[in-house]
Amino acid sequence: MTYAIDPLRDALLGFGTLGLLAWIVLKILVIAVPVILAVAFYVVWERKLIGWMHVRHGPMYVGWGVFQAFADVFKLLFKEVVQPTVAHPVLFRLAPLLLLVPAFAAWAVVPFDAQVVLSNANAGVLYLLVMTSLGIYGVIIAGWASNSKYAFLGAMRASAQMISYEVAAGFALVGVLVAAGTLNLSEIVMAQSGNGGFTEWFWIPLAPLFVIYFVSGVAETNRLPFDVVEGESEIVAGHMVEYSGSQFALFFLAEYANMILVSILTPIFFLGGWLSPIPAAWIPDVPVLATVLGDGWWWLMAKMFFFASCFIWFRAAFPRYRYDQIMRLGWKVFIPITIAWIFVTALLVYFGILEAGR
After folding, report:
1. Residue 147 and residue 84 in contact, taking contact as beta carbons nearer than 8 Å
2. What domain count does the chain have?
3. pLDDT per residue over 107-127, tens digit each?
4. Contacts of 70 (CB under 8 A, 6+ apart)
5. Domain contains 188
């Protein structure tokens, strides 16, 4: 794997084991810190965008609204952490971490560019499925350890919903694996490269899987219209109802980190990742324009921003589904379609219409 900061890596590795640990920690911070900052600004963007959709201003006082999320974080950090006397003392404190750690660990295999990835693992997709599934344990333990009927009901809803749509999302990714012929995320992106720009991406032959994967991601993160887990009009805050202060902030951070993760994985799997949507023949032979319009991490960020904004749009535009409607959509609609389209993808690859791993 080639990194853009090879001289720094070589200098640190010259110090032996201590330098190796410093290099690993540095790579982790380079990804973790921007993700945390992205969560903060994403919250601001969500409140502003929803405000505009509701024909109001949204946050506008703390740094003209830009630093409103940081003010909210400071408020939560300095608030008292109240633990119910009947709650399990260890598991109650452990649950937020069980949700937060997998949400950040999943970013280890996310490629931001051809040379920018923490771990270019060959089984990256399998690692992602494992990490995104582990968060369910944090939700279940939070609901059970709180010893509250509302929290436990929310946890049961969350676990059933997350597992259901995890199956649909997993089957959608099987179609991507059939088309790309690899489990490596960087190679999946490169399998969508070509002179045709956006016409080479998987969203065309895998259109049903593309839609199902993103909608399943919305359902897995318990966002509207799939937020019966924490429906304010029914069970207040679901599995988080007994949490306050910094512990609630950890749940909040994990939820939004997962939303951003889904928003960046969707273009990686179906929209060419960092690849430019402009066909090579359309890019003028001017050095500056060729660099800007060509492949690069900025295209991945733009695609991620679009899907992250779709989360907000769904929240502002759609009513909440009933729980039976959510379960029916996952098991009776999404899963049969994904299984059928896996066979269609296999036929496309077999007859050479879709070249696997080109």
Report:
1. yes
2. 1
3. 999 999 888 888 888 989 999
4. 40, 62
5. yes
